[in-house]
């Protein structure tokens, strides 16, 4: 239903303005269209840079809860929800962790088929998070380009009622959602190349921030070895080759045959192979220690006597 008061509020949002730099885009040649979009896209990273202090606060809020077994739960509608699902889906194959999850307005079906009306219901967010099994130890990360989506506001309110931590991300300044969150991230991406198409610059900013948050979280949880992806599992030839290279980088050897032997003894588990190679302990000992440290590879190595080199 069209509501004039809501229309007036939406009209003030930076993401809903007409972009003067893309006026006339329909008359451009293909290359000109692409150059215009690309020029606008280049502004996103700078906008994210300004929000990094808030992103850092968000990560610091998440880390101790994740260490205690809590989950990071993205909540969103439309593009924001789909990006949340994407980030969550990549964390297990990349880091061997399922602590990043997503709840989206309209459910999983909305990933492929728009269910736009659901985002207007704050009550639906509470219902969905209850069904999801949100706990006080979790962190709700609500994402909406507008910063005012009722579904996301409802999720933040329910998180507070439950005692869970809460983070909001919006692509407009002074967002309504910010007032309901423990940490508010606002990335002012401005007018889109196509007016109101927030899957573009706003969506790019959301993806960038989600990448940063989940990646930094996994680093802080010890699920990398420096900048090496060490908790991955190989299921195809490309990943098998990558696993060998990662092992060699981690232990400082360039010997495919030797690396393959170490991996075989570790049943193909890269993190066990690395830990066994650098500590001289058996894969079974390493597996037990990784269980004790909840997958924190660096902490497991330290407990097994490994002392990392420092500059």
Descriptive report:
Helix content is 51%, strand content 8%. With 311 residues, it is of the alpha/beta class. The protein has 2 domains: 6-220, Glucose-6-phosphate isomerase like protein, domain 1 (Rossmann fold); 237-303, Orthogonal Bundle (Helicase, Ruva Protein, domain 3). Strands 2-1-3-4-5 form a 5-stranded parallel beta sheet, sandwiched between helices. Helix 6 (150-162) links the parallel strand 3 (139-143) and strand 4. Helix 3 packs across helix 7 (201-220), helix 4 runs parallel beside helix 7 (201-220) and helix 8 crosses helix 9. The longest helix has 21 residues, at 30-50.
Write the layout of secondary structure elements.
Layout: H1 4-11, H2 30-50, H3 52-67, E1 72-76, H4 78-95, E2 100-104, H5 122-132, E3 139-143, H6 150-162, E4 165-170, E5 183-186, H7 201-220, H8 237-251, H9 256-265, H10 270-279, H11 283-292, H12 297-303
Parallel strand pairs: 1-2, 1-3, 3-4, 4-5
Helix pairs in contact: 2-7, 3-7, 4-7, 5-6, 8-9, 8-10, 9-10, 10-11, 11-12
Q: Which key phrases capture this entry?
A:
Helicase, Ruva Protein, domain 3; 5-stranded parallel sheet; alpha/beta; Rossmann fold; single chain; 2 domains; 51% helix; 8% strand; 311 residues
């Amino acid at each position: 239903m069209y509501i004039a008061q809501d229309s007036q509020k939406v009209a003030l949002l930076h993401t809903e303005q007409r972009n003067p730099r893309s006026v006339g885009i329909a008359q451009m040649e293909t290359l000109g269209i692409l150059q215009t979009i690309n020029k606008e896209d280049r502004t996103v990273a700078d906008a994210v840079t300004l929000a990094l202090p808030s992103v850092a606060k968000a990560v610091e809020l998440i880390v101790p809860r994740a260490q205690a077994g809590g989950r990071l739960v993205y909540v969103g509608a439309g593009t924001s929800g789909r990006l949340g699902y994407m980030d969550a889906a990549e964390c297990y194959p990349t880091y061997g962790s399922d602590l990043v999850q997503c709840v989206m307005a309209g459910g999983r079906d909305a990933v492929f088929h728009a269910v736009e009306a659901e985002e207007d219901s704050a009550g639906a967010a509470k219902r969905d998070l209850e069904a999801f099994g949100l706990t006080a130890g979790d962190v709700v990360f609500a994402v909406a380009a507008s910063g005012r989506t009722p579904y996301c506001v409802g999720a933040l309110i329910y998180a507070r009622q439950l005692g869970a931590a809460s983070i909001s991300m919006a692509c407009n300044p002074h967002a309504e959602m910010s007032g309901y969150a423990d940490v508010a991230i606002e990335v002012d991406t401005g007018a889109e190349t196509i007016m109101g198409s927030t899957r573009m610059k706003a969506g790019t900013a959301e993806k960038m921030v989600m990448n940063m948050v989940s990646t930094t979280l996994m680093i802080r949880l010890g699920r990398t070895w420096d900048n090496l992806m060490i908790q991955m599992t190989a299921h195809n030839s490309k990943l098998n080759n990558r696993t060998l290279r990662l092992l060699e980088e981690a232990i400082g050897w360039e010997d495919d045959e030797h690396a393959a032997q170490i991996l075989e003894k570790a049943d193909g588990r890269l993190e066990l192979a690395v830990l066994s190679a650098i500590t001289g302990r058996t894969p079974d000992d390493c597996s037990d220690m990784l269980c004790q440290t909840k997958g924190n590879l660096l902490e497991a190595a330290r407990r097994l006597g490994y002392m990392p080199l420092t500059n």
